Structure formats: C-alpha cells, structure tokens
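Cont'd.
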Amino acid sequence: MHVAADTEKCISSGHCAMAAPEVFDQDEETGIVRLRTDHPAAEHEAGVHDAAAVCPVLAITVSAERLG
Amino acid sequence: MTRSSIGASGRVENDVPAFPMPRAKGCPLDPPPGLRGLQAEAPLVRIRLWDGSTPWLVTRHDVQRALLADERIGSDSLLPGYPHVSESFQARAADLQTFITMDDPEHARQRRMLSPSFTLRRIEQLRPTVQGIVDDLVDGLLAGPKPADLVSAFALPVPSLVICHVLGVPYEDHEFFQRTSRLLIARETAAETALAAQMELVGYLDQLIGRKLAEPADDLLSQLAVEQLQTGQMSRQQLAMMSLLLLVGGHETSADMIALGTLALLTNPDQLAVLRHTDDPTVIARATEELLRYLSVAHGGRRRVALEDIEIAGEVIRAGEGLVLPSEIGDRDERVYPRPDVLDLHRDARQHLAFGFGIHQCLGQPLVRVELQAVYGTLYRRIPTLALAVEPSELEFKEEGFVYGVHELPVTW
C-alpha cells in the first residue's frame, strides 16, 4: 500500500493523525500533515483508509502500490 | 416564470417549500419532518428563504460532503446569490467579515495564523486544564441547590472557562459576552440590534487587544497581537473580528452539545449506561462522535454559493446559485447511518458533518472534542442519579438560533 498526502490542500484538522497516528503526524510549527511513512504496514491499512475518508479536504490518496 | 424558479421535482415557484422548517413537537432531537420529506424526494431541491430567494437545499450526506469539499463553491458572504440566514446576518456580513465567510487565498492566510494553536498535540496539552474545569463545576453542582439548571450551572461555564483560558479573555466578563453572543447567533435578532451587539463586542475585544499589546501574556490573543498585528499581517479591526469569531464560536456550540447531549442521554437510559459504566477513552471518544452526529447542533444549514456550473446528482447547479447544506439532515441519512434516528454510542460516526466539511471545517474541533470527552466521561459517572427535573415536553428549545439547543435544562440527582 502506498499513501500520499497533499500538504497544499491540508487545513491541519488532524483527523488523519487521530485515525492512524502510526502513519500520519502534524508538523509542530504549522499543523500541516507529515507522513511518518508512505508505505504503511498492513496492520495500519484500515486506519489509513479511515484517515482518507475523514480528511475534510480529501488530501489523502491511497493506492495499492506506488504508481509510475 | 424563470427557469430558476423550477425546483428539482419540477414544482413551480409557489410550491417551493419555505426554509427553515419547524421540528416536530415531541421530537425535539430529530430534524424537521419537512426536511426528511425533501431528503426522500431528491438529493437537491429548491427552497425559499426569508428574502424570497430560492437556493438549492442539499439533502444527502454524500452530496453535502462532495459539495463542501468542492473547490468550485465559495463561502464569501458578499458574493451575489449567497443565501443569507436572515436580514441581520446579511447586515453583519456587509459590515465586517471573518475568514469563515471568505474564500481563499485570504481565508487560508488568516486560518493558518490560528491552526498551529489547534493541533492535536497543543490541544492535548490542555486536557488536564479542561478536566480540572469540569471537575470543579461538578463539585459546585453537587454542593449547590437542586434542582439546578444544567445550562447555566455547567454546560455554558465549561466552554466559556476553556475559551477564556485559551484566548486570555477575563471570565469575569462572561455575562457580557454570553449575552452579546446570543444576540449574534439568533436568526431573528433585528439587524440593528445585531449590528449594535457586534460593535459592542468588537469594541470590548479591541480594548482587550490593546491591553495584550501593552502587556503580552501567555495566551492566544497576546500571541496574535504580537505576531500578526504588530507585524502588519492584520489590522486591529481584523484581529478584533477574528477574536469575536473565536470567542463566540468557542462557547455556544459546545454548551449546546453538553446540554442537549445530556438530554439525549437522559431520554436514552441504555445509552447513558454506556457512559456511566466506562472510563475507557476509546469508548468515550466514540460516544462523543455519535452525539455530535445525532445532535448536529450547528443547524439551519451551511451556506455556500456556486462559483462555476457544477453538475452533480443529476442536476446542474449554475454559477451564482446559492446552496444550503444542513448537517442535521445529512447526518441522519440512512444511506450512511443505518437506523439514523437511533442514538447508538457504539457506532462509528466519524464521518459526521457536525463540524462541516471542506476547507471551512471547524477550526476548534480538537478543542471541542477534548471538552466533550471530559464532560461525557465525567458528569454521569460523578452524578449517576442525574435526572430531568421537569417533563421533556416542558423544555424550550432554541429553534430561533443558528445553533440548536435548550434554553434551560432543570436537573436533579
């Protein structure tokens, strides 16, 4: 699984970091999303999908594997 | 007759239903039956507002979500076609705007001044303070006379004390800012009264900002005064308006969630039992999201205007047309939440729209969550015999407000 987060879109809601804290973090200064990994372990798959679903600006994209 | 006066179902102008709609007597926690009817009819229908305009009403959860996150809709309340809540809201918008009724890039510029103060980490650091405030107020309630009004003795003081702490506003002034806030939120406040209340509150906050500039303290208003005002990033009036938004937004909605949430639990004893018998933060957090979904107190619909033509759900929304998106009906959409009218604290309600969706989603939501989790995790365990002191039918609800709630909640124990 590959995950990407669009830091331009991000409004620092923190939903992703709540849904999957092992994968998403917030920048200390700005609150903008920071990925801890872009290849989350299988056990975090459900949390990553939750994060993508609750992100208010749809800034998180999940794909089966890195595209291209 | 113009084309725009024909609704989604092809009904002619005279048949366009008036909005907002009343809730049913005896079902004060459910959305208006008229809204349910429209939701069953179509995802997008025309409604008629106070000024005779006929914007779109968006009824379904998925379409509300899609539109609120769509970059082709705007929140700028000065745009033609913007569906104003009432005459006084329109008058206030023309007077002074805050970033919640602005579009990017100015919206993003101002919001980003605040977002570092509302990260999960920063808000988590406030949890002990919030818990202390809740504990003290429960102590006060238990030491005081009964029956007591839960709104004035608990539901309003919790978020007022918290937001005063965060902003650096003296809590001694709470009667003043609670009274003026209420006038600003009520839909039916006369335009003149609302403008006067706004001016009074802006004046008060402007003076406070002056004091913060002279003697900065460890609070958000001081920080904004030093970092944004002194550097010329914001005018003094802009900062006063931003402070007003934070102060008003910071206490009314949370207070209503506390009082209405308690009413919802007292009338659903099996659900109340869930909170009474747990100290598990995961269970409390999940329950909080369900109460946010079930009550969706910021009612009456989020207001937007289409910036371009948008084709969605079988309709074309034309550029310049208004949109009204009530979360109280979106969050009761059975396509997303089976048995939507059942309060079920074990369900996963995280996709609720109670805080909105898209770039304007509530900035303060991490703080609201900490407040509500502290309250829901404490009040019913500390006062297990908590009960209504009147019949539910005797309660008076804030139908007239932009935020739904109960005026008083007499309780005993």
